[in-house]
Amino acid sequence: MNPASPQTQRLDRLLAGDAAALLRGGKKGLEKESLRVNDRGCIAATPHPAALGAALTHPHITTDYSEALIELVTPPCAEVRDTLAFLSDIHSFVYQHIGDEMLWATSMPCVLEDEKRIPIAWFGNSNVGMMKHVYRRGLGWRYGRTMQTIAGVHFNYSFPEALWPVLQEQAKDSRPLRGFVDQAYFDMLRNFQRVGWLVPYLFGASPAVCKSFLHDRTLGFREFDAHTWYEPYATSLRMSDIGYQNKHQSHIGISYNSLDDYVATLSRAISTPEPEYAAIGVQVDGEYRQLNANILQIENEFYTYIRPKQPINQGERAALALRKRGVMYAEVRALDVNPYDPVGADAPALRFIEALLIWCLLTDSPRISPEEQQAINHNQMQSARHGRDPALTLQRQGRPVLLRTWAREIVAELDGICGVLDGSDRDKPYGAALGAQREALIDPERLPSARVLADMRARGESFLQFAARLSQTHRDAFRRRALAPSTQRRFARLAQESLEKQRQLEASDSLAFGDYLQQYFAQS
Predict the structure, then answer these.
(1) Sign of CA dihedral 423, 429, 432, 433
(2) Cβ neighbours, 10 Å, residue 40
(3) How do the domains of the chain map onto residue ranges?
């Protein structure tokens, strides 16, 4: 690490005395999406199993866009191994209740014969549940249902609480602590926007896609075989221009320069009409097609590599929760499902990202200008679609720089942070995670995206055959894995409690749905 860099100076100050320990123990949680598929590799037409509980109210087992797109959520844990152990337990419980179906092992989906047959998630008849369902209808009308079947892994991270007073004292900042914390998170978020392209480059695992996903469009892709499109240097087609995009968001320009700016620009997008969406209609023949005809229906429609998060109360708008209570954690949304890991996420990747987030916190973070935002968008797209091209350049401070050169510089600066995070651990897991990525920068054939294509070639597999094989392997492993009796009882109890909570919500509603929406959007 360059001894003159600002992040080194801050890290050196933290290392004085016992302060180094304050960087350890940040809370880590995961949200992992997976399509349920049948034994033919097609999206499941069955409803979310009642034995798993109510998707609306279960704290750990829910659904994303589709009834078949299950989402498994861990609590925040101080140790990566505990987060992944909990995720393994959820998988084991799920596999007890989905019969012969499988959880698809890749981010890019299975066979999609007709997008109208992709079932939109259903959350019951309560106003809260209907709002979630109608929001998803709107996504289908705006972007198509097919795109919504892409799965990902979200890594939730909060810095240790004891760290903030020390950083504030070192910064000689006299504002209330919450204001300091909010600004520190936004400083970190801006830096992650700048270097977030590194995540799909190192951990992207979606260089190929079933032809059924593109519905006879080629979009400039190459043909891998009769059933598969691919990009030879792609890392994460999920994060490319075939993934979730809202072209109208650029009209508003969501700002990460401060919490106030972020909330203001996000709220403006939710209240600004968009003619293209108005043409769809909001309520047509007595049925809601979308929540509104604005650039964003709600905050969740804004897609980005990383988000500031504050848990919301029932019926509360996400932006208002941030404004009222500040940032609690950051949600990193740039991780593909790892097809080689049974739970879709691995400890080395999470440890590397944790170190990268700390680096982003400790590094100076100027405001992002519109010109820099354009460069950020360009870099993210290029890394996702062409990242392993050895000649690929990105834009940094108005100048081109080789992706691999920039990546090596960032990785070199994580050495000291990983050393602190390892502490006295003899296994040095953070250092090992960093070392693995350093080796991958030397030999990009080690990257997951390269490994996927190499395996498909070696076995003569299409993308679907590759994904189905690994899905079956993981299913068989979880079927053999026994849950501890106490864990089994806990998940069974949570399932029943969630069903009862949904029944109570439905019984307690007194407003018509239209009135409920009006009150929801009138919050200030």
Answers:
(1) negative
(2) 8
(3) 6-16+29-521
b/e sequence 263-274, b meaning 16+ C-beta within 10 Å: bebbbbbbeeeb
Instruction: Say what the pLDDT of residue 2 is.
Output: 44
Strand pairing category for 329-335 and 306-309: antiparallel
Low-confidence spans in the chain with pLDDT less than 70? 1-11, 14-18, 243-251
Q: Pseudo-torsion of CA 82, 83, 89, 94, nearest 10°?
A: 180
- What's the pTM value of the predicted model, to 2 decimals? 0.96
Residue 19 pLDDT: 74
Q: Based on C-alpha coordinates, what's the Rg of the chain?
A: 23
Tell me what the pLDDT averaged over the chain comes to: 94
What's the Cα-to-Cα distance from 156 to each of 179, 206, 353, 486, rounded to whole Å? 21, 22, 10, 26
pLDDT number for residue 39? 86
Residue 161: C-alpha distances to residues 89, 188, 421, 424, 464 (Å): 28, 16, 16, 21, 45
Burial of 450-469, coded b for 16+ CB within 10 Å and e otherwise, reads bebbeebeeeebbbbbbbbe
CA angle 476, 97, 486 (to 5 degrees): 90
Nearest residue to 291 via CA among 134, 448, 78, 429: 134
Longest Cα–Cα distance in the chain: 69
The string of pLDDT tens digits covering residues 316-372 is 999 999 999 999 999 999 999 999 999 999 999 999 999 999 999 999 999 999 999
Going by the DSSP 8-state scheme, the letter that residue 294 receives in this structure is: B
Cβ–Cβ under 8 Å, residues 412 and 1: yes
Residue-wise pLDDT tens digits, 89-101 = 999 999 999 999 9
pLDDT score recorded for residue 454: 98
The whole-angstrom separation of Cα 43 and Cα 64 is: 14
Neighbours of 484 (CB within 10 A): 10
Q: What are phi and psi of 361, to 5 degrees?
A: -70, -40
Measured CA to CA in angstroms, residue 327 lies from 121, 195, 312, 460 at distances of 29, 21, 11, 48
| Residue 244 confidence (pLDDT) | 61
Q: Domain 6-16+29-521 is in which class?
A: alpha beta
pLDDT attached to residue 391: 98
